Amino acid sequence: MLSKRVLAVVLTVAASVTILFGGWFLYERSVVAAPLQKAINSSDGIVEAGKPDITAGSVKIKVKLAPDANLRSVYETIYKESRDVIGNRELKLDIDQNGSAALDEAWSSALFAVAEAMETKHYSEIPAALSDLSSHHTGIKATSEMDDKNVYITLKQGDLTKYIVLPRTPAQMEAWSNA
């Protein structure tokens, strides 16, 4: 049988761990996740959103957007409504794409011009590259918008949509895994 002293230490450690993890869970749920979920729900254009994955450097959210969603507006609303939660973290939306091979091919044809414009910071060349894309690929409409953090590109072909978010900081662009 365990001595009373060992039993007291074991019970104290178990109670401390339970209180600490329980408190962390409640804090994470009420102070961090709830306001972020409220911001996501208040954003026009989001049809469905998963649970936010919050790390030290980023906030990642899996979302499904409406066909007429404005990607820049979605980002802006989430940033604005949850500024205290996001802080300096990078907001990454994992967008459920309903694209097609034709949209992927069109994006590939414009990728070099867009990458060059991003790398040289000649952002005004991006709409021209997308206009060229639209003229060479019938039925595809391309739009672009920009804010202080990202360039947002939307390719549409009927009901199909491909969303691309390109960070404006060249060191973070790497291979554009989110394209």
Number of domains: 2
Distinct helical segment count: 6
The tally of beta strands, per DSSP, is: 7
What proportion strand? 15-25%
Given helix and strand content, the structural type is alpha+beta
Level-2 CATH architecture of the largest domain: 2-Layer Sandwich
Shape: elongated
What is the string of helix and strand elements? HEEEHHEHHEEEH
CATH domain class of the largest domain: Alpha Beta
Return the average pLDDT rounded to an integer: 84
> In this structure, how is the largest beta sheet organized?
4 strands, mixed
Q: Determine the CATH topology of the largest domain.
A: GMP Synthetase, Chain A, domain 3
Ranges where pLDDT stays below 50 over 5 or more residues in a row are none
What multimeric state do the chains show?
single chain
Distance between the termini: 62 Å
Q: What radius of gyration results from the CA coordinates?
A: 22 Å
Tell me the helix content.
40-55%
Structure summary:
The chain is an alpha+beta fold and 179 residues long. It has six helices and seven strands, in the order αβββααβααβββα.
Task: Report what the structure shows.
By secondary structure, the protein is α+β, with helices and mostly antiparallel strands. It is built from six helices and seven strands; from the N terminus they run αβββααβααβββα. The strands form two sheets. Strands 1, 2, 3 and 4 form a four-stranded mixed β-sheet that branches. Strands 5-6-7 form a three-stranded antiparallel β-sheet. The longest helix is centred in the N-terminal third of the chain and has 39 residues, at 4-42.
